[in-house]
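Hi P.,

Sorry for the delay on this. The queue was packed all week, but I finally got your sequence through. Input first:
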Amino acid sequence: MADLPEGYKSIPEEVSKKAKAFFERAKTVAGTGNYEYAIEMYLQGLALDPEAIDAHTAMRSVAMIRKGNGGKPMGMKDKWGLPKVAKDDFKQAMLNAEKQLAYDPGNMDLMVQVLVNAQKAGCYDTVMWIGPILFQTNANMAEKKQDYSKFQTLKEVYSAIQNFSGAIEALAAARRAKPEDMDIAQELKDLSARNAIKAGNYEAGDFRKSMRDAEGQHKRLLDDMDVRTTDVLNPLILDAEKAYAEAPTDPGRLARLIELLRKTEQLEHENRAIEILDQKYKETRAYKYKHQIGQINISQMSRQERAYREQAAANPNDPQIAREYKMFLRERAEAELQFYKETAEAYPTENVAKYEMGRRLFQLGRFSEAIPVFQQSRQDPKYRAQSGVLLGRSFLEAQFPDEAVDTLLQAIADYPVKGDEKSIDMHYWYARALEEKHEPQTALKTYSQVAQWNFNYRDVQQRIKRLRTPQPNPAPATP
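Then the structure:
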């Protein structure tokens, strides 16, 4: 078992049994509506066993009921009557703060007092109970009202008890509350590194148990957090490389190594993953390895596209950048089309590949080729709506307006929601198809419906105005 953090204090079993008598009495009294006396009974039990999380939770429930029934915070006279706190008697300081919190359960300053004194008293289970309450209360505040210092206090207390995952979460929230603080990014990196050394599955109510198997729990924690910093991932990659070298035929070890290499989102590591997968493909001819290579390539192109887009946005009047961006988009669509074609051939029942293949054909303006692909992918309920719209648009672009109208009308009928983004898009393109079919009145009515849902959608205002403007009668033919 991993070492417990310094200062942690366990409660003897015989003491916990004595405390339970007070908790049972508190539960009975609370049932009669005597909430203040119930709170007092809980506190007397917690004085014996301050780590009884069920009692902390039950007392807070009583506090919330009391508040709902009009209960007021403690007055100055009641505060003066609290037990005196001797120097370094952090447990009593914690209990005094918790009694005040029971009378004012939304007070974050009192939550902080409970948290800090619980940590100093060695009551780490209590820290893990009150910490999430403080975090959530602060996080639920309007963004401008969130208290940066509360998140910082949580980070410091969690770090002190070696709950680095909690510290990271609190510091990340602090960064959102105060994004201009540039020191937080480095501190997050440092905490991630410390978390890589020692972490646990900190569950309120069982702190000692949470410290078992810290190394294994840490690795699972990193997976859950989706940490991508190289300082954290590099040691894991080295371990995974070693494990894979020891058993290169083990699919689990291979999958773990590839996953870690991809998480870095760095070319060096991604190219290492491609190298391993390519070797496996050559050895086995199993398409799944080639498929994973394609997925990595698509991720790389997505990052390139973001860079091009940002460059184009920063230089809107540079025609050279615009041309390069447009050229890249076409090359990307062609590369992705090839990948999804191969995937659809290797996995004939995989409709996501067919849908994505159709999308790339549509992007490339190959509408006649896209039509049969979308006809297949719309058979899958997951892609029926998207495929139906793009199929109708493909018919429209290929100059089959009758087929476009029928297809888009069917897509509208099949889609159960009215007025959301997908529904609006369907109706807009249905109206466009109606225009092409020379049915202006039906098109106008449909455009009007789109405008009632979203007045600023595309060019719907201009189309409505144009269709409502009387058209001049054609001049009579000259005899």
